[in-house]
Each structure stands twice: as structure tokens, then as C-alpha cells.
Amino acid sequence: MALIDALKWRYATKKMNGQAVPQEKVDYILEAAKLAPSSSGLQPYKIFVITNQELKEKLRAVSFDQSQVTDASHVLVWAAWDGYSLEKISAVFDKTIAERGIPADIPADAMDEYKQRLWGMYEPLGQEWHANHAAKQAYISFGIAIAAAAEQQVDATPMEGFIPSEVDKLLGLNELGLKSVLVLPLGYRDDANDWLVNLKKVRTAQEEFITVIK
Predict the structure, then answer these.
(1) Rg (CA), the chain
(2) Is the pLDDT of residue 37 over 90?
(3) 173: closest CA among 161, 163, 187?
């Protein structure tokens, strides 16, 4: 399915039927999410994949009783770093250097200089800015995952409607230096019981949405 057609097909599914999503489709969606761009390649977030029904019931209780959480095949949770540190940035850069090697035309200390410069910009901005910036990177991955799900004709419901502090407790995120940002149940629509399934998709007209500056 072409991407535009897939995006026209998808909608924020309100009722899922409990059918399992094949693992290869879930893996495809997660791979797309992993390949998303992020600032300086840091990928300051992780994705938790939940299939345990008891845990999904607990998540539903702190997600304003949204039935998609328990009716979904898989529930994906994006959890972003609660802050940046020189140690975290260094770990990513060291891994990148180890896997890529350093091209002959780049000075050996160039990556270290960039890392120090990056941390020099981030450090004074404070913990709140750090957490918000990391969350924004998670949103990019989240959007790509939604598009990948649509391409696979897997229904997905983007969710910010949950209590982050409670999700953090359920998943033990505080101990990992993470904060829950977004939730994405994956499954299949219940056509007979979803009030939204047959309603027209409404978006801003192209001429109002896009401004071309020459």
C-alpha cells in the first residue's frame, strides 16, 4: 500500500477487536520506529512493548479507561530520557565511533570536540528543557511508527491520555532514568462497535495548510 493511501486508510481507532497482530508486522513497525531521525543521533528514548494482559489492565486503569489498551494486541510505550548528561551522550558517541570507525580525513578528536560542544549547549538549559527535548525526539519515532503501522494495515491509536507518573511506576521507568511520553496500542478495528470507523477523515485544505514562500 502506498504511504498516502495508507495514511488515508488509518484513523485513531476507538475500538479494537482483540485480534493478534502477526509478530513480523510488529517487528516491521518497531524497526521503522528505531530508524527514525533524532537530534545528533542520540535516540534519547526507549520503546516498551507490552503484551501481558494483566499489565495492560493496569495500564488501562491509568489511561482514563480507554478500552484500546486492553483490546490491543500489543501496547507500545515511548519513554524518553529524563535528562541529558555527558555520560549518556558519550556512551552514544562511543558506540557510533566503534561501529563506524573514524574516516581518515576526520581528526581523531573531532567527535570528542563535537560531544563536548553539544553538552556545553545542553547543560545550562536545565532538566526540564532536557526532558522536553528528549520527548520531542520520541514524537518523531512515534509518528513514523504510526505511518509504518498504516502501511502494514495495522490499526493504531496515538495516546497522550494517560497519567505519566503512574505509567512510570508500573514500568519501573524512574529507576531507568526515563519518563513515559506516548502510548500506541496496536491491533485491528472492531468495525461493528467503533463509532469513528466510517466517518470521513477531515484535514485542513491544502491551500490553507501550506504556505509557499518563493
Answers:
(1) 20
(2) yes
(3) 163
